[in-house]
């Protein structure tokens, strides 16, 4: 079994059957154990764990009491119910302000991609879930059918058109994307985009199109981006990717051809790498918290002694440009 990808896992009970129970939700709002997970400018509230022992998370998620939120905003119109964990109820909350207020001591709103590896896996998952839900709500303020404003229902998991003659309901949506490690024996196919840090390479990825299976998307994306034809496509794992609303579906595939032709200009470069090539330049790898690293790791570890995670050292997300 491979390790669970970052942002994935049973980090809380979503109790979806209770989202339409207004009395239960009202009781959850009144519960002193309930906490808000604030999101500001697509950033998450994170505190530093300066006294963390070696190997422990160096950062903590900022969970906020409702009393710390702007007056009158702790209601089901502004909060999105996420679920429960150890008898505490968690709600996502978007701060719409030019500058964020001070909600917790020594806490700042930070980019989740840059800090996910520093967080406990449960807390990273909660922050990702909150960020994804806030992003969805922000982009669906109006009805897609008639243009009338929407109102939240079912704990914030439905946005319903307020036009009585329409009443169209919108639900959270994900954009499925395939990501694949293509191998040919002791070599793996990796590519890089021009916007990435110098020397960074990763696995091939792209969005699934309508009327297309996941396996067909893998074959098409690899051919479009690199000109390489693949076969024996096998599912590996998935990773929620709330930047803003993707689900990364990881695959392993074997090359049927090797010649590289950059057809759609999505990539600046693509080439075949051996295990020795990767060991000679471990900084070329994507960050450990990405599913792309997990795919490379699966292939690398299957070829010989030594685990990639131990040999390559740490790798963090590049700062956004």
- The helix/strand order is HEEEEEEHHEEEEEEHEEEHHH
**Which regions have little confidence, pLDDT < 50, spanning 5+ residues?**
315-321
The largest sheet is: 6 strands, mixed
What is the radius of gyration?
22 Å
Number of helices: 7
Quantity of strands, as a count: 15
DSSP strand content? 25-35%
Secondary structure: elements and pairs:
Layout: H1 22-30, E1 35-40, E2 43-48, E3 59-61, E4 79-85, E5 88-95, E6 107-110, H2 112-115, H3 121-138, E7 150-153, E8 158-161, E9 169-170, E10 175-184, E11 187-192, E12 204-207, H4 214-226, E13 230-241, E14 246-255, E15 269-274, H5 275-280, H6 291-301, H7 308-312
Parallel strand pairs: 1-5, 10-14
Antiparallel strand pairs: 1-2, 2-3, 2-6, 4-5, 7-8, 8-9, 10-11, 10-12, 11-15, 13-14
Task: Considering the chains and any ligands shown, give keywords for the structure.
321 residues, 7 helices, alpha+beta
Written account of the structure:
- The strands form 3 sheets. Strands 1, 2, 3, 4, 5 and 6 form a 6-stranded mixed beta sheet that branches. Strands 10, 11, 12, 13, 14 and 15 form a 6-stranded mixed beta sheet that branches. Strands 7-8-9 form a 3-stranded antiparallel beta sheet, with no helix packed on it.
- A hairpin with a 4-residue loop joins strand 7 and strand 8.
- The protein has 321 residues and is α+β, with helices and mostly antiparallel strands.
- Helices cover 21% and strands 29% of the residues.
- The chain has 7 helices and 15 strands.
């Amino acid at each position: 079994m491979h390790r669970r990808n970052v942002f994935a896992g049973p980090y809380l009970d979503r109790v979806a059957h209770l989202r339409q129970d207004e009395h239960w939700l009202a009781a959850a709002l009144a519960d002193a154990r309930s906490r808000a997970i604030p999101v500001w400018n697509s950033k998450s509230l994170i505190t530093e764990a300066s006294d963390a022992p070696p190997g422990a998370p160096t950062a903590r998620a900022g969970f906020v009491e409702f009393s710390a939120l702007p007056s009158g905003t702790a209601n089901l119109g502004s909060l999105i119910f996420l679920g429960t964990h150890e008898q505490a109820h968690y709600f996502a909350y978007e701060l719409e302000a030019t500058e964020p207020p001070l909600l917790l001591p020594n806490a700042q709103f930070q980019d989740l991609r840059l800090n996910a590896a520093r967080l406990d896996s449960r807390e990273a998952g909660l922050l990702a879930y909150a960020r994804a839900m806030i992003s969805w709500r922000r982009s669906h303020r109006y009805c897609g059918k008639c243009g009338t404003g929407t109102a939240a229902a079912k704990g914030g998991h439905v946005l319903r058109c307020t036009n009585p003659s329409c009443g169209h309901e919108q639900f959270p949506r994900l954009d499925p994307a395939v990501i694949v490690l293509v191998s040919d024996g002791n070599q793996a196919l990796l590519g890089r985009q021009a916007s990435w840090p110098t020397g960074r390479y990763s696995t091939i990825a792209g969005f699934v199109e309508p009327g297309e299976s996941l396996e067909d998307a893998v074959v098409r994306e690899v051919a479009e981006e690199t000109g390489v034809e693949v076969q024996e496509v096998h599912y590996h794992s998935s990773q929620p990717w709330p930047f803003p609303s993707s689900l990364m579906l990881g695959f392993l595939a074997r090359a049927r051809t090797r010649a590289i032709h950059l057809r759609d200009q999505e990539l600046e470069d693509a080439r075949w790498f051996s295990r020795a090539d990767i060991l000679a330049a471990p900084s070329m790898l994507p960050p450990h918290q990405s599913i792309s690293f997990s795919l490379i790791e699966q292939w690398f570890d299957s070829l010989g002694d030594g685990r990639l995670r131990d040999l390559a050292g740490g790798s963090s997300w590049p700062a956004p440009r």
